[in-house]
Amino acid sequence: MDRRQFLISGIALGAAASLGVAGWHYSVQPNSDNRDWVLSAILPALLYDALPEDTTLAMAQLQRSKTAITDFIAFLPLSQQQELQQLFNLLAQRITELAFTGHFTTLAALSINQRLAILQQWRDSYLTTLQQAYHGLRELLYGAYYGQPEHWQPLAYTAPKFR
Amino acid sequence: MTTSQLDASQFTRDRHFETDIVIIGSGAGGGIAAEQLTQAGYKVLLLEEGAYYTRDNFVMEERWAYPNLYQEGAARKTRDKSIGILQGRTVGGSTTVNWTTSIRTPQPTLDYWQREFGLDFSNENDLTPFFEKAEQRLNIHQWPVPPNANNAKLQQGCEKLGWQYTVIKRNVNGCANLGYCGMGCPINAKQSMLVSTIPAALAQGATLISRLSVRKLHWQNDRITGVDAVPVDSHFQPRQDIHVSIVAKHYIVAAGAIGSPALLLRSKVPDPSGRLGKHTYLHPTVISGALFADDINGHSGAPQSIYSDQFVWPDTDNKPGYKLEVPPLHPVLMATKLIGTGAEHAALMQNFNQLQVVIALQRDGFHPQSQGGTVQLDQQQQPVLDYPISDYVWQGMREALLSMAELQFAAGAKQVLPIHHDAKLYNSWPEAKAAIAALPMEKLRQTVVSAHVMGGCNMSAEPTKGVVNQDGRHHQLKNLSVFDGSILPTSLGANPQLTIYALVWRNCHLLLNKFNTSVDSSR
């Protein structure tokens, strides 16, 4: 793993990310630690190739996306918010289990490609819940990232301004 | 701001309102009804769950528009998450955010309704005068400007292959060809309910209450006796702390094809046909992307100006039909629908301006194996649509992917990408054809979306086959009408706004006649 990848993949998007494999808490109640932990694991992987070369800028984009995700979730119906929270709890558990079996001790040690491989496993899982997790997180995370005008430079796109 | 416009989220105590007519929902149905009934001299109260946002709020950014103008932040999904649904939730409903395509109800659809549901829209029931009224009121004309490149490729593909295509009629006045219809028109060019019938109704004495969620209709014997509602919070979640009650002489439910059945289900109104909340149709839609050498810039220009009906009415009933159109392309819409992750996804996004996209809308509801979905209520009594996709519908989707790829290559595409999670960029029509034939047509592998929700309170001549009669009047409850897309007995095979405008205009006319000829029995 090169230095940029190491820094970006180790980004702590919430307080819980620093807890590494101990970060998972079992709960069906809203638990922002599990959400932060899953986002810290997945966001850098989904977006790595879209992020700017400059590491500081890249980290700022990740943080901005995470804030947008949190802001957006509040607009979902309560039942969907609950489902999403249960999903974050489940995924935090799965990533933790993978961490133990894969002999890595901190989240940062899990490379971008290893994380993308986990996402692929969810996509192709026989469990509908994990398939839904793959699609739900993809939409939520990509929507949050590409909703920000600061992230549009690679698209060669700007929205017209009237006022 | 005038006194005729109230924001329920500002209420600090319980409130009670009395009126002649209460209209629940301010979209295509509620908007038309508000103007017609106010003009006739009735005291009208128009209720809307969304906010009263206007042109000054429309900033042309998806990150603001989706959470603030759409149901569930534009992330509404069917129960098993296999279909994404775009539906408006704001004053003007979906008319505030739709792409302006205005099409009269296809004759074969009306013929099917007559055969299956006993609905007669011929002779004195002909909808033509009401299409004409709506077209005049909302300035619906064929779009005179050349199509943007995204639509032009659809046209060119059709020309190359000898397929039918039509230049679309749009409800715009002074349109600047911006391409941001889906985020609210920033210059009031789109003649949505927000800028046409609703302001006209308010000017003539109607009252609008926004950010108000109607929870229940009370009823006794054969009449509705009142409405319970609550304000919503800043994230449009129903609140518990303040209650609003409304009593009217006549009640019009126009909350859309998910919202209206949900309200009637919560209210446990009589449902002897067993069809309330059933047979909900979506025009389930599949997507095909294509990369062109030249710039497409699908974010710019009228989002929809060309459609093709080449495949919408096949010769045999055993094949589903589908309509070909294009969507506007904006960063969030694209990023969430494009397949893949990591480098693959980033590379596709870098081709944002070269991407052309065609969509195929399945005409659902015309076959025993295409009976639509069911509106259910979750623990918070909020609606969830269960829509299982049958093999018959999947088959139509595979054929649609084939047609779209063939068309895009014919129009000069370098590569075509069916939006299916097992697909990739294909370099030629033969390669795409072979690959699409082998794609597993399964939920959560084949991406499916919808922007048209129809049915759930279907009209029928006989009370045994529907929820309302041909005039939108509830079969069992005398002072209740349903005036929105939920009354459609099938999907349309065409974008629904103009059908809803005309049907509701007609139904208002009939309702007013009834009011005038009876002292009280129908009010």
What does this 3D model show about the protein?
The complex is a heterodimer of chains A (163) and B (523). By secondary structure, chain A is an all-alpha fold. Chain A is 60% helix and 0% strand. Chain A is globular and about 50 Å long. Mean pLDDT of chain A is 83; it is low at 15-28. In chain B, strand 4 and strand 5 (83-85) form a beta hairpin. The model of chain B has no long low-confidence stretch (mean pLDDT 97). In chain B, strands 1, 2, 3, 9, 10, 11, 12 and 23 form an eight-stranded mixed β-sheet that branches. Chain B has a four-stranded antiparallel β-sheet with strand order 16-17-14-20. Chain B is built from twelve helices and 23 strands. Chain B has helices at 28-39, 62-69, 107-117, 128-137, 149-161, 197-203, 256-266, 331-337, 342-350, 391-410, 429-438, 497-517, and strands at 5-7, 15-24, 44-47, 76-77, 83-85, 140-142, 166-167, 169-171, 207-210, 212-220, 223-231, 244-253, 280-281, 285-291, 306-307, 322-325, 355-362, 374-377, 383-386, 415-418, 448-450, 454-455, 480-482. Chain B has 523 residues and is an alpha/beta fold. Chain B has two domains: 7-100 and 103-137 and 182-276 and 456-517, FAD/NAD(P)-binding domain (3-Layer(bba) Sandwich); 149-171 and 285-363 and 390-442, Cholesterol Oxidase, domain 2 (2-Layer Sandwich). The chains are: A mainly alpha (163), B alpha/beta (523). The A-B interface holds A 45-50, 68, 71-72, 74-80, 112, 116, 119-120, 123, 128, 131-132, 135-136, 138-140, 142-143, 145-149, 152, 154-157, 159-163 and B 56, 60-63, 66-67, 72-73, 75, 80-81, 84, 178, 180, 186-187, 235-237, 299, 331-332, 334-336, 341-343, 345-347, 349-350, 352-353, 378-380, 382, 384, 421, 444.
